[in-house]
Design a protein that fits this description.
This protein is an alpha/beta fold. It has 9 helices and 26 strands. It starts with a strand and ends in a 13-residue tail after the last helix. The chain binds flavin-adenine dinucleotide.
Length: 400
């Protein structure tokens, strides 16, 4: 009997893994099950070009319909998986369907963290994760509309840039003392805060949202500093991993589904990849949960190859990008515990790179409109990591 490999979650990682299985020569059945009704698509444009009407829905799809057919990838869409029966090697789907697996890959991604304050159920309070979310939001962005963005992270700021380019009156409400505070240094935060302010976006820090004032429609966002009038709000306050399915099946989870460097869970027949995983990082000597396309693709490839019996380890430098106005921010590595920052180029000219070092070793780079510096630094971080991988990540239990 040919083997059946099932992938739960038809997003970036799921689609990648299905393709890798086939490209690697796996000849059994490949079933890709997803709860969304669309074939796998890219999310990054949802807060950027798609929101600006610069990209069509067709351009979001990761693969053509013919690809799945030609590669015998069985797509089961609009099919939420409700339980994993590990003893029977079976998935339970909503509506009663059962799917048997020989090996399973969980790629359930993450979902927006919600802001549970009074009024948050208003239809004018938006989150952004799916194409449906983006379509709903896009329909409401118009000149003169007052848009409150709650959270000055990547997604909030990308939406702020798009909304202000569409002529909306945008306010960013950030609870900490600077935007992008979780992901970068003060200099980059300052650069983007100024870029937004120059375009008329009101960036406010140290502001805590306590309620959304909404009756029929949203009228404002209540903050500890007072009432901010708004016609719509977009909440971007982080994401949480979709790990409940794995957890309910008894797989260890701690801020994500725990996998080892082979993307294997505690069950040798079950793998996981992408936003939903907490995985060991050989460079940082600790577990990480990443929300990035790079991580989803790379982990999915490793998981798929290991499902085919190989023994590949996932050890990549994390990298990420963001686009706000004409500025492309590219980041690689993790700027944790740096003792030195070298600046190249000039923030005033809108083209600069910051190189973060500890004990002379390059930890991370943030580059704005400086792709060459970025690529060179990213390569160096990777080479350095390979030359002296940190000990202690041989197994999942070794790193917390
Ligand atoms: C607006 C936006 C902008 C972004 N911009 C960038 C960017 O510029 N650069 C970057 O690197 N990353 C960006 N990201 C992050 C990137 O898109 C994610 O890291 C990536 O999609 C993760 O892939 P994944 O497969 O792990 O999860 P997803 O792509 O989210 O796929 C998971 C899928 O699993 C489904 N699912 C969950 N539970 C079940 C279940 N029980 N049964 C069936 N299906 C289930 C979900 O509905 C979803 O379709 C952005 C994300 C968003 C939302």
């Amino acid at each position: 009997m040919p083997e059946t490999f099932v992938i739960v979650g038809s997003g970036q990682a799921g689609a990648q893994a299905a393709g890798t299985l086939r490209e690697h020569g796996f000849r059994g059945r490949v079933i890709l099950v997803g709860d969304e009704s669309l074939a796998p698509y890219q999310r990054p444009p949802l807060s950027k070009k798609f929101l600006e009407h610069l990209v069509s829905v067709e351009r979001l799809y990761l693969r053509s319909a013919a690809y799945y057919e030609n590669h015998r990838i069985e797509l089961r869409l609009h099919a939420p998986v409700e339980a994993i029966d590990r003893a029977a090697g079976r998935l339970h789907l909503r509506g009663g369907t059962r799917i048997a697996y020989d090996k399973l890959l969980i790629c359930t991604g993450s979902r927006p963290r919600t802001l549970d304050v009074p009024g948050s159920q208003s239809p004018d309070v938006h989150y952004l994760r799916t194409l449906q979310d983006a379509l709903r939001l896009r329909g409401k962005l118009a000149p003169g509309r007052r848009v409150a963005i709650v959270g000055g992270g990547y997604i909030g700021l990308e939406v702020a840039a798009t909304a202000s380019a569409a002529g909306a009156l945008v306010t960013v409400l950030e609870s900490s003392d600077r935007i992008l505070g979780r992901v970068t240094s003060e200099k980059v935060s300052r650069f983007f805060a100024e870029a937004h302010r120059r375009r008329g976006v009101d960036v406010r820090c140290n502001v805590r949202v306590t309620a959304f004032e909404a009756h029929e429609r949203l009228s404002g966002v209540r903050c500890d500093s007072g009432l901010e009038p708004a016609d719509l709000a977009v909440v971007g306050v982080g994401a949480v991993p979709n790990a409940e399915l794995a957890q309910a099946a008894g797989l260890p989870c701690d801020g994500g589904i725990l996998v080892d460097e082979h993307c294997r869970t505690a069950d040798p027949l079950i793998f996981a990849a992408g936003d939903c995983t907490s995985h060991p990082n050989a460079l940082l000597k600790r577990r990480l949960r990443l929300e990035s396309v790079q991580n989803a693709i790379d982990q999915a490839q490793v998981a798929a190859l290991n499902m085919c019996g190989e023994s590949r380890a996932y050890a990549e430098v994390p990298w990420f990008w963001s686009q706000q106005y004409e500025f492309k921010l590219q980041s690689a590595g993790m700027p944790e515990g740096y003792d030195d920052i070298e600046e190249r180029g000039s923030a005033r000219d809108g083209s600069f790179a910051l190189l973060y070092r500890r004990n002379n070793a390059l930890l991370a780079v943030d580059a704005v409109n400086m792709p060459r510096e970025y690529m060179a630094a990213r390569k160096r971080i990777a080479e350095q990591g390979r030359a002296s991988p940190l000990p202690g990540v041989a197994g999942a239990a070794a790193c917390h």
